[in-house]
Specification:
The protein is 72% helix and 0% strand. The chain is mainly alpha-helical. It is elongated. 20% of the residues are buried.
């Protein structure tokens, strides 16, 4: 091996140890030659045998670094160009157009990231080979770490791009009015049937209140009688309210179903069911209190 190159390798290693880190891309042939001047006067200069021993000792480490770096370099060189499947502007007739546009922008960012990191890998590889050539393993390993990080960042971004591209190609279209109407036929029928049952007032009239005012003299527990009389009066007001509310909401529900506004129809059906259950409970409460009135 050329002893001059070995001397340069040793000096680069010594410089890296004393200065911490050096920009390997800025080392010129002139710098290398000038660094050789005066070496004969250095009292502790290494002989060629020592340089050769150090160089051979790092052979396995250099080979390992080069192999891994080349793997990342070739992987990005051979990788197909990443592209987004999202169209600009957003195609007409797509469902959730705002979501489509947001995902398109995110995907464009991923594509840009991949291009940047691939350029980084291409730029770093010749620097890596140079650092290995001059046996500067500290710098070579630092560069290799950057290449490794960039390569796996690319892998992650490409996976995200491919997933988003699948979504773009299968993006649902906004159904036509007729398609929406036909799709909701079964639910409309179900809503109307449930609403009719909930709003049915037959047999659910307000019961007669068994409590009278003023409290009869024959009542033995006047406090309890008067307490139940007030409760019954409140229940009867509630019954009257729900008997009016149920037909009104039923009419609104049928109107919503007629224009295929199933969102509103579902809300109104929920109100109808709750009001219907409350009406039944209040009627039963009045009847229970009436039974107790006869025993007071």
């Amino acid at each position: 091996m050329n002893t001059k190159i070995l001397a340069v390798s040793a000096m680069l290693l010594a410089g890296a140890a004393s200065a911490g880190e050096f920009p390997i891309t800025e080392v010129s042939v002139g710098d290398m030659k000038s660094s050789l001047k005066g070496t004969a006067q250095e009292p502790a200069a290494r002989g060629s045998d020592e340089n050769e021993r150090l160089y051979q000792a790092g052979a396995a480490a250099r080979a390992k670094v080069l192999k891994e770096g080349r793997k990342y370099f070739l992987a990005e060189k051979k990788r197909a160009k990443t592209q987004s499947a999202f169209a600009t502007p957003t195609p007409e007739g797509l469902a959730n157009q705002q979501v489509y546009a947001q995902l398109r922008e995110k995907n464009a960012g991923f594509v840009s990231n991949v291009a940047y990191w691939q350029e980084q890998v291409r730029t770093l590889y010749p620097r890596l080979t140079y650092a290995v050539k001059v046996n500067d393993l500290a710098t070579a390993n630092t560069i290799l770490g950057h290449m490794r990080d960039d390569h796996f960042a690319i892998e992650n971004e490409v996976a995200a791009i491919e997933d988003n591209n699948r979504k773009a190609r299968a993006w649902p279209r906004q159904p036509t009015n007729e398609e929406e109407y036909q799709a909701g036929a079964g639910e409309r029928a179900s809503i109307l049937a449930q609403a009719a049952a909930a709003a049915d007032l037959e047999g659910r009239g307000a019961p007669e209140n068994a409590f009278v005012s003023p409290t009869p003299a024959s009542v033995t527990n006047k406090a309890r009688y008067e307490e139940l009389r007030e409760k019954n009066a409140g229940f009867l007001r509630n019954i009257e309210y729900w008997r009016n509310q149920l037909p009104a909401n039923h009419a609104n529900l049928k109107e919503a179903v007629g224009v295929n506004d199933l969102k509103t129809a579902r809300i109104l059906l929920d109100y109808l069911k709750k009001d219907s259950a409350a009406l039944t409970n209040e009627i039963q409460a009045v009847q229970k209190n009436n039974d107790e009135a006869s025993r007071l």
